[in-house]
Amino acid sequence: MTTALASLGQSILDRAAALAAHSDMEDGLTCAYLTPAHRRAQAQLVQWMETAGMAVRVDAIGNVIGRYAADPAVAAPKVLMTGSHFDTVRNGGRYDGRLGILLPIAVVGALNAAGIRLPYHFEIVGFAEEEGLRFKTSFLASSVLAGRFDPALLDRADPDGVTMREALAQSGLPGAGSLDALRAAAVDPATLAGFVEVHIEQGPVLLNRDLALGIVTQIAGSSRFQVRVEGLASHAGTTPMDMRRDAAAGAAEMILLVESRCAHVPTLVGTVGQLQVPNGSSNVIPAACVFSMDIRAGEDGIREAAITDIVMGIERIAARRGLTATVERVTPVNNAPCARWLMDQFGAVLRKRGLEAFELPSGAGHDAMMMQRMTDVAMLFVRCGNGGISHNPLETITVEDAQLAAEVFVDFLRHFRPQD
Ligand code: HGY
Ligand code: MN
Ligand code: MN
After folding, report:
1. Which is nearest to 134 in space by CA: 3, 246, 36?
2. Ligand 1 atom with minimal separation from the 138 CA
3. From ligand 3's centre to the CA of 53, what distance in Å?
4. 161-179: per-residue pLDDT in tens?
């Protein structure tokens, strides 16, 4: 086993680099749902899982699911699931999501090479879509697995006007986007022993504490919105300042409201990451402005209170400026606590190695949030270098941390016992 474990860290980093070569853009990594690059990444994962010794299937939404079958001597084995997403944000990092697929594949390869079977089926899921880049549908892939797919999403269009229904129909995926196939892809929770996700931390907490690994206590809930502000187009040179109904100026005031409302409450954060003046011209007062809004907090009540205040504030600003504002809630996901019994099994493994079993909450969203709706979950965070930056090409981990995380994950799997 020791030989098989020797260079897992390097192989994980090498594969992350190889997977990042499949990109929608030439100079950086963008892998949006069901693009040609996304399909190539998916095919690569199938191949790596098969090589590692897994039986692989691709489901109706495009998830790649590899099974490392249980020791045949075990009667009625349950399934322990792991995984994360292989889609990315625009110009993102190569470890966000992908680490949680590549690390367990490397681990299964090592177990298989050493002839070690586990007393449960171990499944790795490469989730096809978590980031929401193409259809503004974050957690799409895990929602299908968790039996929570929203059929209304099939009519949602990407920026080129292609609906998800059309994209799935042309995808070659099983079921071609039929609702029956998407519903049938749900996993029966009774078969599961739990879900664990390895993920890069995407923040500076572990780095600042000089720790390679951490155990997640809970994942902060998040709500995303699209806000459309409408005003009146008129001449930039002739319309007096007090006669304008400027949608962009109104949006600017609304964005500052998001910032100020979220600024002084612990764990509460608010972000406007997209902002457009559709069909704008430099010499025309903006008739419309569209922006995204992402609000998160460690407690659902804190997030909901902030949302209420912000939406009321947006309406007040619009009314004062003679504008209209429409606020559409895109994806609400509640706070997801991790299961103490699973966290404790990670903690025991870390302590046995003489490492601190440090616990921290996650401010970023993860597939584990959706899986937590159907089974108990836990997450292992791996230190993020470069000051903890993520959703950025500068995102990085070290080969030593990847190696340690893989070894800890092996220990976890070999000691894992389902809850009675
Ligand atoms: O936005 C998030 O938290 C996640 O990385 N999709
Ligand atoms: Mn991400
Ligand atoms: Mn992620």
Report:
1. 36
2. 6
3. 26
4. 999 999 999 999 999 999 9
The residue ranges of the chain whose pLDDT is under 70 are none
Ligand 1 atom, smallest distance to 365 CA: 3
Closest ligand 1 atom to residue 366 Cα is 4
Nearest residue by C-alpha to atom 6 in ligand 1:
131
Q: Which residues line ligand 1 (CB under 6 A)?
A: 130-131, 138, 364-365
> What is the pLDDT at residue 2?
78
- Kindly list the domain boundaries of the chain, sorted by start residue: 2-219+335-415, 221-329
What is the second-level CATH architecture of the domain 221-329? 2-Layer Sandwich (3.30)
Spatial contact of 419 and 196, defined as CB atoms under 8 Å apart? no
Model confidence pLDDT, tens digit, residues 29-53? 999 999 999 999 999 999 999 999 9
CA–centroid distance, residue 398 to ligand 1 (Å): 22
| CATH homologous superfamily for the domain 2-219+335-415 | Zn peptidases (3.40.630.10)
